[in-house]
Amino acid sequence: MRAHIIGGSVVKVDRHFELGYRDLAYKVTKDCLECSDVDYVIVSSVLPELSAHQLDLGTHIVQWIGKKVPVARVESGESSGLAAVELAASLVASGAYKRVMVVGVEKVTEYPTYTANYFYSLTLDYEYEVLRGVSPPVYAALAMKELIKSGVRRDCFSNWAIRMHENAVSVPHAMLKFKITHESFKDAQVLSDPLTLYDSFAFGDGAAAIVVSSTPDRNGSSVEIVLSKTEVGLPAYARDNISDLTASTKLLKEVTNRFELDLRKVAVELHDSYTTYPIAILRSLGYMDDRCDLDEFEFLNTSGGLKARGHPIGATGIYQAYEVFKVLTDSLGGKRALSEYGLVHSMSGPDNLSRVLVLKR
Amino acid sequence: MKLSVPQFWRVKENQYKLIITVCGECGRKTMFKRPVCPHCGSSKVEYVESTGVGVLESFTKVYYKTNSSEDRLPELVGVIRLSEGVRVIGEIVGVREDELREDVKVEAVLRRYLSDDPYGVIYYGIKFKPVLTH
């Protein structure tokens, strides 16, 4: 038995003050034709207990959207979305269910930004990192300093952000649809030096849905999930270098070798919560020298990535899977890849855990 | 109440001391008293208490707010290489942000982490401050 993504839908990542968790889930599933006939629902969400005082979100969502099918919620930090897709693929491939709808939904803007920052920091170890003053930008900043000491130019990280904003301009559901330049970084708000706001993802509310089916779409508009794999890394404080993202690097090396994929040619969505991380990963994989030239990557984060499409934490992995599905079968932001394979990468924290999804046309 | 008293009480040893886990299999040292070596998975581990003295390898000035107060911004957070050879990350205090430099000698001190204002419990733990050389 195989598992295929046959369709889906996304809501624009934004500050949706008028929409709650249930409203966003309803909005995204209402617009998804393939979502009408499913026999299981998986909800991916990270913050409902903190931002909406809500337990058992999955049940409340299926009740609200009128689906009388089993439901489960998945939470695995920032990589929750891909964990949910992995579970859906397993349910379908095992023969237990035929069509599983995976809904990623998150409300990040319910409170002032400093509270969202606090919630997001809890993806780290609360007792041994957060209480000691460590937050996600701290690791991204310290890793960036390591890379700069090893010879990477500061504008290498800026290049990534500039490219992501360029990509996002033509993506309808992206949050930050405007271009930035190297000049933008000069007066940028510092989060944790040398890391600035322009090196960071955008917080946004969002919802995305995909349908995983045992049979491919009759019109050929589907992709097969050929691999879903996870690797657990070391806590950042226990590594020789914070910028050693060994879980991500190991996974990506393994799948690119196994399927003979060139990241410069295939549709790929890399987790770029901070500009530090994709640069560290691409350097470790041997794709980038100190010049950090991104021009030869044709379908790299076509969505604009977490950086510019936005990062509705528990929904992000579903957005990424939907986006690679669209680039392979239709188009996204006017781009369509001719490659046979597409790749989605997600990680939680500074490579505490990494997941990779390989999709085949 | 921000913190559960039992939650903090349970981890007090790792908050009030710098305990290093030394692996009997692979020999790696890792911060905090933990049951299993995170490098090789062995439970054949021993514990050593650090003297708390080390060298500041790197640091960052943090302006990222996680509460409504700006009183303590920027916070200084650094990577310290303890004299036992293991690295730990912690807040640096007792120094002006424009005077802090890499490679200075630092020592562990007990300082306030947070409190359940206005009448709640105050939680303490380890931070680091530069060692005065004069």
Mean pLDDT of chain A: 96
How many domains of chain A? The number is: 2
CATH level-two architecture of the largest domain in chain A = 3-Layer(aba) Sandwich
**Oligomeric form of this entry?**
heterodimer
Structural class of chain B: mainly beta
Task: Give an overview in words.
The complex is a heterodimer of chains A (361) and B (134). Chain A contains 11 helices and 11 strands. In chain A, the strands form 2 sheets. In chain A, strands 3-2-4-7-1-8-11-10-9 form a 9-stranded mixed beta sheet, sandwiched between helices. Chain A has 361 residues and is of the alpha/beta class. Helices cover 32% and strands 18% of the residues of chain A. In chain B, the strands form 2 sheets. A 5-stranded antiparallel beta sheet of chain B has the order 6-5-4-7-8. A 3-stranded antiparallel beta sheet of chain B has the order 2-1-3, with no helix packed on it. The chains are: A alpha/beta (361), B mainly beta (134).
